[in-house]
Amino acid sequence: MVYIRLYSYPRLKVKNLLDELKDRRFLVIWFIEIWERYAFYGFQSLFLIFITSEGIDEERGYLIFGIFNSLLYLTPTIGGFMVDRYIGAKKSLLIGAIILMIGYGSLSLFNNMNTIMWSLSCIIVGNGLFKPSPSALISKMFTKKENLNSAFTIFYMSINIGSFVGIIVSPIIANNMGFSLAFGSSVLGIFLALCNYKIRFSCLKEINTSMDGKKLNYYLKYKISLIIIAQLILFFLLFQIPDISFYLIIFTCMGIFLYMLIDSLNMKSRIGRISQILGILLIAEAILYFTVYNQMFSTLILFAKHNLVLKIFNFDVLPSTFTSMNAFWLILISPILASIYARKKKNNSSIAFKFSIGTIISGISFIFLRLVIIYTGKDGFIDGNWMIVFYFFSAISELLISALGFSLVATYFRKDIVGLGMGFFMLSMSTGGAISGKLGKYVAVTGFGNLQPIESMNTYSDYFFALGIVCLFLGVIYWIFAAYIKKWTDLIENNND
Where do the structural domains in the chain lie, given as residue ranges? Predict the structure, then answer.
């Protein structure tokens, strides 16, 4: 259990938080999230290898990956809206998990391209309904700001146990028994988590978002069903035109950002208005990070396939296995950061500063990879153990941005739109996912499989260097911005203590 692991860190001074994390309410949500993450990251680690095995070239594969990831994070904005207006977090979590099971289940049963696109559409819609719900419920459990930051960080650590296991186990199953059984294990995991959720549902009765506890009439059920079916059809069609879909998604994201900005400007409270505007600007900052983050399951996996010695500490591994190092470091580092956040306010910097530091560290990780390629590359290959160090930097960056995103929403956005706010943060992931897929064409050369390793390694090296420089430059800009708004961020974050 998560609190047992925490006690293995002797310097953690978060006793009050630990008492809250022992609450069965937290553990019920954690358990279903951990299995959803097992399914999601297991699938992510196999995505490009799976889809290129079906005859799609790498450039188109990157683009489909980008569209998939973009829609995956765009739909939680729709799901968040439905949580706030119609369904409530508890029902949304249940419906979303069932649709996810259908998506992964159909992938395990069929392998023609049309069925795959329908399956991807189901995963996208299910994720949209599921994803805002656990975070929205967690945000209702903690009142103090430092406990909220710590709770989300620990929650992030615990669900990365699922990520770590998924990235390790799913590729092994796929490699030895086929993709069908790998996706089938995801269905089984979510099913077990849903059973636990239903059995222990009563312990969540005191934790509610605005629409939880209200019955759905036939009109609302019809409306919700129509929205779900319309999304499935739309996303299937978007996969048929990925080049056009990229621009449609970017314009949609821009439109939602504009809507949220207008909503902020219409707020009567001055402090509330400034708070939400700053929250929107910080979420916009995160777009760069999520563009880089999505390299983990796209360019970095194919880089491993083409240019890494597939060994970790002399053990043979699969290309996707290296990605599990990110989850490994997240599990180790998260409690340390949670301990820091749980201390007095004066020992903590604002979320804006954390975002800027995370962006800079993300840049450092890619510059490091570039240097490793230059100084240790031999015959087009580098030692796979270097990726352990790369993912150490990557994990710190993720914890400073992605792990605090939901805490940002709970702190900077008004409380009656918490579900929409959680979905809105994922909009930055959506935009980053789309851009990431588009950027993939720069390393997806026609006839890539016929290239010598030294040629592909040079292509990746230049690409990683460009990503690193952009992150370093913009990270410094973010730091300056954080210093400029420090007065307001201190006021806003202190008011949420």
Answer: 17-495
Between CA 158 and CA 26 the distance in angstroms is 11
Residues of the chain with pLDDT under 50: 1-15, 17-18, 347, 447-448
Residue 418 structure tokens: 């918490």
d(CA 317, CA 309): 9
> CB 128: neighbour CB atoms within 10 A?
29
Block residue for tokens 């153990």:
385
Q: Are 107 and 59 in contact (CB under 8 A)?
A: no
Query: What is the reported pLDDT for 411?
Result: 81
pLDDT tens digit sequence for 322-366: 888 988 898 888 777 767 766 655 545 788 888 999 999 999 999
First to last CA, the chain: 28
C-beta separation of 100 from 471 below 8 A:
no
Altogether, the residues listed in the chain come to a count of 497
**pTM exceeding 0.90:** no
Name the 3-class secondary structure at 378.
strand
- Looking from the CA of 305 toward its CB, the CA atoms found within 13 Å total 18
Query: Would you state the torsion angle of the CA atoms of residues 265, 266, 268, 274, taken in this order, to the nearest 10 degrees?
Result: -20
| Torsion angles phi and psi, residue 209, rounded to 5 | -90, 180
Taking the C-alpha atoms of residue 278 and residue 408, their distance in angstroms, rounded to an integer, is 10
pLDDT of 233 reads: 94
pLDDT digits (tens, 9 = 90+) for 167-215: 889 888 988 888 888 888 889 888 888 888 888 777 777 776 667 667 7
Return the pLDDT at 473.
95
- In angstroms, the CA 62 to CA 444 distance is 8
CA dist., res. 352 & res. 483, Å (int): 9
Strands (E), 220-356: 308-309, 311-312, 315-316
Fold of the domain spanning 17-495: Growth Hormone; Chain: A; (1.20.1250)
CB-CB neighbours of 406 under 10 Å: 26
